[in-house]
User: Fold this.
Amino acid sequence: MNTQMLVDEAVETLQSQIDDTAIIACSGGIDSTVAAVLAHRAVGSLLHCVYVDTGFMRKHETEEVSEMFSEMGIKLKVVDASERFFSNLEGVTDPEHKRKVIGEQFIRVFEEEQSSCGAKYLVQGTIAPDWIESGGGERDVIKSHHNVGGLPDDVDLVIVEPLHEFYKDEVRSIARELGIKSSERQPFPGPGLAVRVLGELNPERVEACREACHIVEKRLNEAAGDGKCDLPWQYFAALLPVRSVGVHGDARVHGETVVVRAVTSLDGMSAKYSPIPHDVLSSISTEITNTLKGHVNRVVYDITHKPPGTIEWE
Ligand code: XMP
Assistant:
C-alpha cells in the first residue's frame, strides 16, 4: 500500500472511531504530531491538541512546535506548567524518582485539560514497537522509560491509536507525505532536559543545560553541513554536578561540568560514540565555556559505547 493510501485509510478509520470531543497530548515529536494531524483531518475541531511545557524543553522548542501547528492550521493549546514541575521536583536527585514525579505531574496537568474540554476520546501516538517492547522486557529493568504523556490504565477515556500497527520508518514516510516538519528531528526523551541535568533541578541549571544542548546541536549541524563529519543519530549535552577549579583572569573559580554526548545508532538499543573531529569539539568547548562563564568551566566528551553506557546520563 502506498503512503497516500495509508493516510486515507487511517483518516477513514478515525472518522468511524471518534464521534465526540477528543484530546491529544502533543510534544512536537514525530509520533504524536502524525497522530494529531491524522485525527485533525478526520474530525477537525472535535480534536483538542494540548502541549505541556514542563520547563524541560529545548531552546525555542515551545515556539517552534506552536509555529508548526499553526502553519498546519491546527489549534494547539500551550500549557505552561513549568513552575509546578520545578516545585514538585525540589530536592529530588534520584533519576527514577525524577521520572516518576514528572510522569505524575504530567498526568495531573493533562487531567485538568481533559475535564475542561470534556473529552471522551484520547488519541495517542503509540507505534508498534511501543507495545511490542512493553510487557516486562529486560530493557525496562535497566531504566524505567516512563514516557511522559503515558497515562494510567484506569483513565476514563476511550483510547484511539491510529499508528498502532506502524513502525518508525512508516511513520516517517507518513510524516513526509503530510508535510510535517518534525519528521527529521533527533530523538528526545519524554522527561526532556530533566534527565540531562544530573543532581538537583532548578531553573538556572536547566537553563545552562538548555544552552549547552543548543550549542552542541548548532555546531554539529554546521559541521555536518560543511562535510566535516556525519550528523550523529543523537547529540546533546548534559550538566554534571561535578565542580572543578578553573581560572577567570587572575581568579580561581569553581564551576560545574558539561559532558558532550554524540552517538550513532539504528534504534537506540545499542550505540557507538561518534568520532567527532577535534576542531569541532574544540569549538563546542569554547562556545560553552564562553556562554556559560561563571557556571561551567570544564567540558568533556563521552567516549562510552552502549552497552555498557546508556545514551542519556540518567
Ligand atoms: P538510553 O539512555 O536508555 O536511551 O540509552 C535510549 C533512547 O531513549 C531515549 N530515552 C527516553 N525516551 N523517555 C523517552 O521517551 C525516557 O524516559 C527516555 N530515556 C531515554 C534516549 O534519548 C535515547 O534516544
Remarks:
- DSSP finds ten helices and nine strands in the chain.
- The beta strands are 22-25, 47-53, 76-80, 121-123, 158-160, 234-248, 251-265, 271-273, 296-301.
- The pocket of xanthosine-5'-monophosphate is lined by residues 99, 143, 145-147, 187, 189-191, 195, 234, 268, 306, 310-312 (CB under 6 Å).
